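cron nightly-structures :: item 1 of 1
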Amino acid sequence: MTSCLMPIGELHGKHLVTVEGLNQDHLTPIQQAIVDEGGTQCGFCTPGIVVSMTAYLMKSGATVNDEGIKYA
């Protein structure tokens, strides 16, 4: 769910992960692929794209590597 569409009250009791919470030590493979390929949008869109792709890959069971990123 995109954070801009979810009222804060609906998050009560739920686990929320932002783009900053994906990996604090270095870029995730998805973030690195976006940087390498120049795939940035605006400062609001790109984090949403990264989190959405990560969630999609996690739910689908695909590996978060080059092949999985291309799949997403």
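cron nightly-structures :: done
The CA atoms of residues 26 and 32 lie 9 Å apart.
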